[in-house]
Amino acid sequence: MTAPDDVRDVRRTAEDALAWVDTHRTGFTLGEDALAVDGEVDRSWKPLGELAQVCATVSRRTDPSDPLHARARSLLDLAWRETEEGELLLRLQRLEPFATYPLEVYAALASAGFQNRAFEEAAAVVARTRGWRLTEQDPTRRLGVLRAEECCGIRRPSPAPPGPPATWLGGLPEPWTFGRDAGYALTHVVFHLTDWGREAGGLPPVLAAYLADWLPPWLDTCLEARMWDLSAELLAVAAVVARPAGDPLPLDAWQVLRTAQRPAGELPVEERDPPPEESGGAAERLDGERYFLRHYHSTLMAAFAAVLTSARPAAAPAGTGARHGGRGAPA
Predict the structure, then answer these.
(1) Any domain includes 317
(2) Is residue 215 part of a domain?
(3) How many structural domains are present in the chain?
């Protein structure tokens, strides 16, 4: 039986992680180069989209009276304001009509109830072209784009390409072929199939059974290697897999991850990332932006996994209500 103190420790991981994210919210703001052709997407739109994706799940998996819920909604409002209520995404879509990341960022926000009808109409026009449908992508990325299309109400005029069976996880590979790249691929297949942990029933039973067998040793391997970012993603998958069957939570693994979390709440990507007090001076100094970029994703994943874990047993997912084109969506 799960001890209440153990679950509270997992919950505190989420609280501390989101507190760090909130304190560093300026790191998610878009710069003047957000629409530049040569802009660095990984420093602008990618962090903003990941913030929206995680906070959308946190807001759905927590009660409106929960402080975590309020913090997640506040961060979602920030993300929506940064896009100028979707207008920047519309302009970006017109500048780069065949880029998928504007749709993926928008879909993350749309899943939290935000809406810009002009963007959806423009995206639907491009999605009807053969050029969009035939863009070459790896199977996991293609699955994510298809899910983003569905979230935005886009329906392909012809059958969609193969989904999970074409991915590494969908092929039920030999367990010993697991590695870093495969790990990140399988976690995202699970995230796409389950609407980022909001619909555990979206994971096919054959994949759930395969993961129930092999996820524990893979997770142990990543924790032993002190790969904290991937470990957090695998813990999120473990929460999704365990929920329908009511299986035990991997609380020993959570204790290991909790020790890697720093006092301010951030989680390093790997053990080799120096803490702030050790990163000053000489060539090893990490400036504020670089430190943020090395820690924001793993910290978001820690919050994401912790909320999915501590929210069990799952209540029926709450609807997001009517989607709004204004400043925010209902809590």
Answers:
(1) no
(2) yes
(3) 1
- pLDDT, tens digit, 9 for 90 and up, residues 241-289: 987 767 778 889 999 999 999 999 999 999 766 665 554 543 344 578 8
Q: Does residue 245 belong to any structural domain of this protein? A: yes
Residue that the structure tokens 């909320």 belong to: 307
**Domain interval for residue 58:** 10-310
For 158-202, the pLDDT digits (tens) are: 665 556 778 999 999 999 999 999 999 999 999 999 999 999 889
CATH number (domain holding residue 132): 1.50.10
Q: pLDDT averaged over consecutive 10-residue blocks of the chain (331 residues)? A: 72 97 96 85 94 97 96 98 97 94 97 96 94 90 93 77 79 97 97 93 93 96 97 97 79 94 96 59 59 96 96 46 45 38
Q: Does residue 207 fall inside a structural domain? A: yes
